[in-house]
Amino acid sequence: TEAPTTSVTTTTPSSSSETTTEEKPGLPFTGESKGTLIAVLGSLVLVSSIIVLAKTRKTEKD
Question: How far is residue 17's CA from residue 21's CA, in Å, rounded to a whole number?
Answer without folding.
Answer: 13
